Structures are given as structure tokens and as C-alpha cells.
Fold this protein.
Amino acid sequence: MSKISQRKDEHIRICIDEDPSFKIKTTGFEEYEFIHNALPELDFDEIEIAADFFGKKISAPFLISCMTGGFAEADNINAALAEAAKDLNIPIGVGSQRQLLENDAFENSFRIVKDKSGDVPVLGNIGGQQLLSLKNITDVKRLVDVIEADAMVVHLNPSQELIQKGGDTNFKGIAEKIESLVKSLPVPIIVKEVGAGIAKETSKRLLELGVSGIDVAGAGGTSWSAVESLANGGDDNPFWDWGLPTSYCVKETAKLKSDSDFLLIASGGIMSGIDVAKSISLGADIAASARPVLLAYDKNGIEGVINLLAKWFDDLKKAMLLTGSKNLFSLRENKLIKKSELF
Ligand SMILES: Cc1cc2nc3c(=O)[nH]c(=O)nc-3n(C[C@H](O)[C@H](O)[C@H](O)COP(=O)(O)O)c2cc1C
């Protein structure tokens, strides 16, 4: 197994068997309360949570975040996640396709996501760091073709790279590479973090580069700096809790919506339907989740994933009814209050 495949395998093991969650920092969603509406004048059955994802209709404002591919066991995980995505009619991302740039050995672990997910949107994935080492930016086109991707995700993970043994620590030139990728790929580009968050100024820069979507992937859920210290045998890591909380990143980046049209994804520590509802209320178009979905798969397979997310979507609808929100647009109309204002 190549080093890249080994690492992906180890990441799955750590995310299932150990706990790489933030220790002190939270998403900040608990700092917000919904303004309860005791007179909603709505029929629960008419609450509408369908959303648009780059022109495709999806049944809930939710994405199964990019996780895996590129080693033998990833076939099973990706097949199950893809079937769950198909059942729920929601988009799904594959994990980093970096391994495919080296050889075709585990191509099926990515392709299977397209094969099993029917017509739902499928997202490719590559690290900003890997873009730097590409001789030809159009190599990424192959990664899109393998899974007939509807969009390509570029992940930024400087805190992870700094903690990872042998991580790539020269980050110069990634912005320029993203800009050329935007120009050369036929599909929209989404840029995400992996759990340390994207600040408003960075989002602004990314939009100037031409990206079509931003997934803030903020702090409060899985810490990738933590995953790497667990991989290093649990070394002392003062950056375990590094990053900007998800709620803050969403609220701030949403302010850019008045000037630009882009898809805003809230992720990093999304753990419930109420978190999804708060994300949308703070200005996100959709929410996304990674490790909680993996853990549901590990415990109860495809059914586990479907049951978890179906419950979240049902709870999202309940939160919408209780705030008098018939649809997602209405949920964004000042439905939240800061907890500090309640007392
Ligand atoms: C097992 C696992 C593997 C991941 N691999 C990738 C990856 O290859 N590419 C990527 O962009 N993000 C990857 N992520 C990061 C997630 O997409 C997400 O941004 C991060 O885990 C925070 O979300 P969470 O708190 O819901 O887990 C991975 C996450 C998990 C749990």
C-alpha cells in the first residue's frame, strides 16, 4: 500500500476508534436560541426543506462531507455512503483523490460513489497543497471525469499539514492554483477547510479567485490537528483546539452574500437537525457533516446513516414549524437570538 493509501486508512481508524474532537472549543451554535413561535399557523406536512445544489434539486439542505477513497476498504464505506445519499436524495463528496494522481490502483473506491448514488450531485476532492505539485492543472480534469463530478472541492488544511509528520508546509502559490483551476475546469469549484474554519477575509479572497462555493468547515467537531497528533502517538499538541467556530464563520461569510452569488456550506461539528436549522438561519445555504456520518455507518451500516440523517431532517422541519418558517428562505428571517440577550 502506498503512503497516501496507508494514511487514509489510518485516518478512518483514528476517526472511528479514537476521539479527535475539539476538547474545549465548540461550534458556538449553543450560544443561539430560536425565537419560539407559539402561533405558527403552519401545517407540518407543508414545510418545505428541498434545496438547490448547482442546478440540481436535493431533498434536504445537506451534504455528506468529503471523507474517503484511495485504499481497499474505502470501497465498502463509499458504496454505503453513496447508497444512503441516493436514498435521501442529497449530495455526497468523495475523499481526497490525491492517490489517483499517482496510479489507478484504487480508482474503484472513488468511482463506486458515482455508481451507487444515482442522480444525486457528487463532488470530487483534492488538497490545495496537491495543486502546488501538479505540473499540469488539467490533471484535475481526470479526477472530475472518474466520478462524473458535479463540482470539485479543494480542501485547505494548513493546521493539519503543520502537525502531520512529513506534512507539506509550504503554502505559497495555492491561491493562484485555485484561480487557474476555476478557469480550466468545466465544473464549479468549492473551497473548504477541514475543521479550522474559513474567516470572512479569506472567503472574500476566494470569491475574488472565482470559486462558486465555500464550505467553512469550522471548529467544534473533528479537529484534524488532533487526528494528526493521535497518528503521532498522542504527542503534546497546543494546536488541538485551533480554529474559528463554525457558527462565527457562517455568520461572517454570509455577509458577503449581498455582493456575491455563491453557495455557502456550514460544516464542522454539525450534530443535529437543530444545528442544521441554526446554520441556515445564520445564512448558510446547506449544512454538511463528516465524522458523525462515518460513526453512524460504522455502528449500523447504510441504515444507520439513513436513520440518523432522516431524523436530523425531521428535526429541522420541527424547528422550522416552531419558528413559523414555511421554507428555508423564511428560516433566514431573523429567527435567532443570542443567548446573552435572553437574560
Ligand atoms: C474520516 C474522515 C476523512 C476525511 N477526509 C477528508 C478528505 O479527504 N478531504 C476533505 O476535504 N476533508 C476530509 N475530511 C474532513 C471533513 O470533510 C470535514 O471537513 C471535517 O471532518 C469537519 O467536519 P465534522 O466535524 O463533521 O467531522 C475527513 C473527515 C473524516 C471524518
